[in-house]
Amino acid sequence: MLDVRDALLGINQLLDDLLEDASIADGLRPPDIAEPATRLYLRIFRNRQEIPRDELHKTLRGTGISQGDLEARGWINQAGRVVHVMPIHERFAYFTERGRNRKVIKADLDQAHFLIGAAFQGTGVKIETELNNPHFRIKKSVDEILKWYTEMGDLDSTRAAAKTALQLVEH
């Protein structure tokens, strides 16, 4: 069941998908199975690490999601008049802080970022252990988000880590 806000966001995204030219989208749209807020985030921040605050507000207008909602999820932060994407390694550090419960990893994007972060070299976290944990249930859309990051990740290291995480999730 979706609440009204997520349903409206999903409808708006379906309309955007119909209107979007494949050449503008670099050939790969965010996964349709992803949660509406995740799809919006991936669409806005595809191939970019920052966006002017005013442009973000204009992009979010009518979606039912605000900049504050994205900040509350820990996906972005604002510095001056520019909004920055929270790097995956910083999100992973937040998820794995001493004493922090894994229950903070709620959204499908959070799960994907956690798995990508765990796949980076030298993190000391074994993805296999996390995947075998009965309290860590992966959402259906996570593998599609990982596939998206293997193609659209901003750095080679991110794409490689997403590929590693995807292979482990699939097995």
Overall description:
- The chain is mainly alpha-helical and 171 residues long.
- The protein folds into two domains: 4-86, no CATH class; 89-170, no CATH class.
- Helix content is 53%, strand content 6%.
- The protein has helices spanning 4-19, 36-44, 53-60, 67-72, 88-95, 108-119, 127-132, 142-152, 156-170; strands at residues 50-52, 76-79, 82-85.
- The longest helix has 16 residues, at 4-19.
- The radius of gyration is 16 Å and the shape is globular.
- The relative contact order is 0.13.
How many strands, which pairing sense, and closed or not: the largest β-sheet? 3 strands, antiparallel
Radius of gyration: 16 Å
Q: Which term fits the overall shape?
A: globular
Our measurement of the CA-to-CA distance between the termini, rounded to an integer number of angstroms, reads 29 Å
Q: Which regions are unreliable across 5 or more consecutive residues at pLDDT < 50? A: none
Give the overall pLDDT as a whole number: 85
Structural class: mainly alpha
Number of helices: 9
Percentage of residues assigned to helices:
40-55%
Beta fraction: 5-15%
Number of domains: 2
Order of strands, main sheet, comes to 1-3-2
Tally the beta strands. 3
Secondary-structure element series: HHEHHEEHHHHH
Brief rundown of the structure:
The chain is built from nine helices and three strands; from the N terminus they run ααβααββααααα.
